[in-house]
Give the backbone structure.
Amino acid sequence: MTSDKIRHVCISGGTHGNELTGVCLARHWQSNPTLITRAGFETHALLANPAAIKIGRRYVEKDLNRCFHPANTTTDAKLLEERRAVEIQSWLKSRCNGSYPDVLIDLHSTTANMGLSLVLANCCPFNLMLVAFLKERFPEVNAYVWNEPKTQPGFLNSLAEKGFAIEVGPVANNVAQADLILKTGLLVDACLDFINDWNSGTVQLQDRDVLVYRFREHVDYPRAHDGFPAAMIHPQFQNRDFLELKTGDPIFLGFDGAVTHWDKPEGWAVFINEAAYYEKGIAFTVADKVALAINPAEFRR
Ligand SMILES: [Zn+2]
């Protein structure tokens, strides 16, 4: 087995200033770097948006997790988060021999009932094997592939091919919830163990299929003429993340009592009633459940 050795890993938290799971862990690891130190590669802890953390908001002027593009320059950066993205990109390069880290894991939390989730921007063999490895240790882990190549959303973790966002919930914004913080810490530990195995060539997971939920579409709330949501997530649909959404199931309950039903083919819903997505026009996301093969040919490149 051959593999590209991992030299630099970045673990980031506080990309969204009101998601305390990542903020608490990144701060803890910045003060105690030996906790994320492993032989053979360097791990860098990043607190991504201190200005937003200070005021307890997702962002100050623009969602930082939509500002990362490999070719970003200071001249294009106008808003606070656009400038911070450029700063983070230079910071990463200064610590990773002039390029981006080999692996980037970005810590988030959600108000949706997503448990322990991994949100992948791509499905390279490394990522799929890491997902398989984590699912073995933590059977409750779900992987969601959010890949919209045409729009290039500009996620922080898209700067590195390898890695993903860890998204845990449900937890309210600005709340530090111990069980989720501890579990996220264990997931990151396991990721570092996997990287160790990867570097020593002992990963043996390439022959299996990995079950993932793959992005299909976003669904918005029905809206009143002024843009305010005209309905709520239906109580029977609330908290049903990663469960099957059948044609005919109730999805919205209007304030007048009217029920909206899902009228499309069956799917699996993710990010149901995520607080931060009201402004993005997303009431929930629908995914397809697919088994992806880890491609040995690609793996051996
Ligand atoms: Zn987030």
